[in-house]
Design brief:
This protein has helices spanning 5-9, 13-45, 55-60, 62-72, 93-101, 104-147, 163-199, 202-257, 262-288, 291-296, 298-308, 325-346, 381-391; strands spanning 152-155, 158-161, 313-318, 351-358, 361-368, 395-399, 406-413. With 429 residues, the protein is an alpha+beta fold. It has a five-stranded mixed β-sheet with strand order 3-4-5-7-6. The protein has a two-stranded antiparallel sheet with strand order 1-2. A hairpin with a 2-residue loop joins strand 4 and strand 5 (361-368). The radius of gyration is 37 Å and the shape is elongated. Keywords: ATP-binding, Kinase, Membrane, Nucleotide-binding, Phosphoprotein, Transferase, Transmembrane, Transmembrane helix, Two-component regulatory system.
């Protein structure tokens, strides 16, 4: 409907909506008649206890109606809908009835059947028959005024006759047909949404939503990693190379000018500033995505990270091979942030980083012997790490009693066959 009138009206959607509403009116009328007959028969025969057996049949009428409605739903909704009924615990009709009567899906289907009989069916009938009848009446009036020119056609607050009535009748019929196509599609979409809500399996719908969210999250992670690598490549191949060239030229100029004079002093100061800017840029590039992590994997990158840490750190990470890039990046930055927090807050004398991969689950622990008392605060660094871990379906747990030690544990599922050889990895930028 949002694709433009021409595209919408030339598609099969209005016709399928009309077929859905018209068939819904027929099914709704059949449900109304059947419900009335079963209810009256049960009430009359209840005096001799036979009618009590018909009362469960009123509720179970929703089961076959739901099967028909799931088939009809394919007219306007291509996604399949399953009922989610359980298999009976034992063979035989009595076990089947007991199982169905104890299911929430059966009562939802019965509620939908009642709604179809007393509400949805009449609305479908009104829309599916009213619009074609009104359009046909306008066309009939237009043709009548053309055949009998002296016939007067009353249109709302004015009357027309002759060619004017014919033109007005055709235009109004076209307008009613177009607006009716939108109205039928809108009503059919609402009916289908309610049918899917009541007749679909809640667990299946929830699983589909979770799968869609997980897929969207994976796409975001991949896009983020690609953008980060692009920034790293641009910094490495662009600004960093220019700074290297500038530093070399300033160094040559410094040698040529010697050590005396105002110009030599200015060039020497500029040379030192360029060297510091180059060092800072290299730190930024390292923070965006470490080249060592891209080239050699997680254990060497963590070893280098521990070597540069201000707190004494020991790394014990043993992995059988390379992990998915998103997992490696997450583990690296969690360890990096944890070491930074140790230096800032823990007053620790020693930090141990352990990492293992078992049953396709990566576990990384950062333990320090500091003062403890760490907690996850809103807006804090640990909350950011928790969010980063959640992006790759990981979990972050913190144990930090007052007095220490503090243990930060990251667990990330890697999936079957997550490890890969160096040849299977994409080339670094």
């Amino acid at each position: 409907m949002a694709g433009g009138p021409v595209r919408f009206l030339s598609s099969s959607r209005p016709w399928r909506s009309f077929a859905y509403l018209l068939s819904g009116a027929v099914v709704g009328l059949a449900c109304m008649v059947t419900l009335v007959l079963l209810t009256l028969s049960g009430a009359v025969l209840a005096l001799v206890l036979v009618g009590l057996l018909l009362l469960p049949g009123v509720v179970l009428l929703g089961v076959p109606v739901a099967e028909v409605e799931r088939l009809r739903l394919r007219l306007v909704d291509p996604l399949p809908v399953t009922g989610g009924h359980r298999a009976p615990a034992a063979p035989g009709p009595s076990a089947w009835v007991r199982t169905r009567m104890g299911e929430g899906a059966t009562w939802r289907e019965f509620a939908y059947t009642v709604l179809l009989a007393i509400g949805l069916g009449p609305v479908d009938l009104l829309v599916a028959c009213g619009i074609p009848l009104l359009t046909g009446a306008l066309l009939f009036a237009a043709i009548g005024s053309l055949v009998y020119p002296h016939t007067t056609v009353a249109l709302v607050v004015f009357s027309l006759s002759g060619p004017g009535a014919t033109v007005a009748g055709v235009l109004l019929a076209a307008l009613v047909a177009v607006m009716g196509a939108y109205l039928m599609t809108f009503v059919a979409a609402g009916h289908a949404t309610l049918a899917r809500l009541l007749l679909g399996c809640r667990e299946e719908q929830l699983a589909a939503q979770v799968a869609q969210i997980s897929l969207s999250r994976r796409r975001l992670v991949d896009a983020f990693e690609a953008e980060r690598r692009r920034i790293e490549r641009d910094l490495h191949d662009g600004a960093q190379q220019r700074l290297v060239s500038l530093t070399m030229k300033l160094g040559i100029a410094r040698i040529e000018l010697g050590t005396t004079g105002e110009a030599a002093t200015l060039v020497a100061a500029a040379h030192e500033d360029a060297r510091q800017a180059l060092a800072e840029l290299r730190e930024i590039v390292q923070g965006v995505h470490p080249q060592l992590l891209t080239d050699r994997g997680l254990p060497p990158a963590l070893t280098e990270l521990a070597r540069r840490s201000a707190a004494p750190a020991h790394v014990d990470v043993c992995l059988p091979g390379r992990l998915p890039p998103a997992v490696e990046a997450t583990a690296y930055f969690v360890v990096s942030e944890a070491l930074t927090n140790v230096v800032k807050h823990a007053c620790a004398d020693r930090v141990t980083v352990r990492g293992r991969l078992a049953a396709d689950l990566l576990t990384v622990e950062i333990e320090d012997d500091g003062v403890g008392g760490a907690s996850v605060r809103t807006g804090g660094g640990l909350e950011g790490l928790d969010d980063r871990a959640a992006v790759v379906d990981g979990t972050l747990t913190l144990v930090s009693p007052c007095g220490g030690p503090t243990v930060l544990r990251l667990t990330v599922p890697c999936g079957p066959g997550a490890t890969a050889s160096r040849e299977d990895r994409p080339e670094s930028p």
